[in-house]
Batch of 3 targets.
Target 1
Amino acid sequence: MEIKSAVFVISNTEVAKCPVSVLPEYAFIGRSNVGKSSLINMLCNRKSLAKTSVKPGKTQLINHFLINQNWYLVDLPGYGYAKVAKEQREKWNVFIQQYILKRSNLVCLMVLIDSRISAQKIDLEFMRWLGKNSIPFVIVFTKIDKLSKRQFSDNITAYTLELEKFWEELPLCFYTSAEDKTGRTELLAFIESTNKLF
């Protein structure tokens, strides 16, 4: 897939205010500081489509971007250790869950995982919640350029073993780097093929 256009549409915290649900939609989510904004910018071949920051918690709204006039990319707030008030985090959790559960044209949720660290309880629990609610998702491992081939192999093997404790069939996985664009072709090909089924 060639990205010919990527246009910001709207930011909000209410599912009812999202764009009319006639186009396929792919939402990106992960723990704070997982490299979500950098990955989105890499996929769309834009430097600052999604706002990046050295401080976790930059994304605080449901952000819709219209890609090629025929599908939406959605940037969701991160979860985890962002240094924001507990009350604010709880508000995020409510509208994120409402979006995931009620958005009828959400084709797939891209769950971003930092490939450098071991499996985190918060990620595993979130994916099990998705499974219980029959939400289609894939795992997108980020920052693989930061690892040697041996480290990458060891980390992915260890993560797979953790997943196998809870899943009979493992989710589809992608391996990416925003720095060298690893995984871009594979992710866009997945989206393109899935769009044809919408």
Note: Confidence is low (pLDDT under 50) at residues 53-57.
Target 2
Amino acid sequence: MQIANKRIGLDSKPYIIAEMSGNHNQSIEKALEIIKVAASCGADAVKLQTYTADTITIDHRGGLFDIQDKSSLWSGRNLYDLYQEAHTPWEWHKALFECAKDNGIHIFSTPFDDAAVDLLEDLGAPAHKVASFENNHHPLLKKIASTGKPVIMSTGVSTLANLSESVDVLLSRGTSELCLLKCTSNYPSSPENTNLRTIPHLRELFDSEVGLSDHTFGIGAPVAAVALGATVIEKHFCLDRSEGGVDSAFSLEPDELKALVIETERAWQALGKVQYGIQKSEEKSKLFKRSIYVVKDIKEGEKFSPENIRVIRPGDGLAPKYYEEILGRSSPKNLKRGTPLHFDAI
């Protein structure tokens, strides 16, 4: 899979997406700064969400239009009001795309209706993201697939059957490059409900790239995800959690995003390949393995004993496996303390 000039796959370092969401707090200056800082932290892409309150819901009170879950960060909020606060104004998009280009970072978005897809296409978005809450929206999936652009789709709040249907819609309508992100749609989510072992299973089931859209605190889950084969990591990002914002509580700050970029790449590098034997980089370290050494002066004809030979470092003498065989034999010559024992001295 490839997004613009970046190859995504097991043979490339993880592709890191900094999710802006509503962390701009309705300030375009802050939105532009988020893009610049995300680029300076080493992220590969910054992601927006393209909707308005009216394209995602209706202005209505009561019932499920008000968030009733007491454990939610947004408990008691009305959906329309929340989306009004969190949306990224469409008139900002051109400036945000230009800023990303100027700072050498990819930018794309999660569209929530057909008009949003058209806007993003006009701006030259290199890919499209499908949110977990939209992955059952088949009409929208068909519109996104028709662009032929790479698609990254989160898999939260979905049965396997639902997910299979959504993948079929995308692949049958024009999507040729697809990445599925394991996602737990709690905000924040916990390590215990993240279930990263799903990642290699997703890859096997759908023969696609896989990754993690993570809402836990910190960077532990993304690093572990890379070890399990994740090639894309998406994390919410803000400049300063203390400034507040709809998603700031589970968003990374700049130093944490830098650490995410560094540590996920290290995890990827460390995976390597199945390897046994002595690597070239270990050759010099062989000298620090143990071997059989003379630890007390030995005269010709004197028997080898635990008092005059030992298995110690360094490693340029006989291998320790010969130690028991040598004990009790007579030395054919004088040997000085600190001499590595070799076959010619047995």
Note: The first strand starts at residue 2 and ends at 3.
Target 3
Amino acid sequence: MGCHAVTMTDLRPLRSNRRIAPVIALAVSLLGASVTACDSQAAQPEDQTSNQLQTEIVDTLPHDPEAFTQGLEIADGALYEGTGIAGESWLRVSDFPEGTIRTTVDLPGQLFGEGITVTDESVWQLTWRDGVAIERDRHSLTELRRVEYAGEGWGICALPDRLVTSDGSATLTFRDRGTFDEIGSVQVTDGSASVDRLNELECAEDGSVYANVWTTDTIVRIDPNTGRVSAAIDATPVRNALPEETPNIDVLNGIAQIPGTDRFLVTGKYWPSMFVVRFVTKP
């Protein structure tokens, strides 16, 4: 009996519909690795199996249902959130977990906001196809400068020695924390297959990078030094916990580690809730 390997490429939606795609809740059990329809005795190569985890909800918090969330980060008791849509994008700082808003700034003109990250005394915000990253004072959100970059901007996070950015492909690009210049890159793989549509990023305290996989309810944990996916995390429990009457919810997007803990805050575009979760072994 012949076999057919189904890869992430087979599941890829049209990129032109990226910002207007309907909610697609895909149950992807093995990201980027081949799923082979073969005789049940055929064995998967060991290096093609990532650890399978799922989200366990610890707490539920309110979230602005009008926020087209693109970036989420927690630092020094403050929640930073950036949103998208041309002419409607903003960056906001609020107390965490209380939710009291400290400061909000709108992106100028028709800039389409994307991922955000906090570094030292600054916060960076990418733009989608506008080719600029905006650096702001992390307290006042006053704009400090703009830096141009090539290609699309999707996600960004900060490791101690470099920034990490995504552009919707399987590539993570490393950038200098001071100049924003490219200093390297890595291809993300699960076994022998690449994992693309890497979106919003979170650099965790253990040195790994977490990425939302766009249009899915899956988060992947990545070793930034090798690009290897060490875990695929099923986040369908958080989507299932959303109120049934919610009319306009879009894709999962937004992940932030709660500093000093093993817990993360996750949400999505136009979601009325944020969820404090742990990543636990999938039954």
Note: Residues 198 and 213 are 5 Å apart (CA to CA).
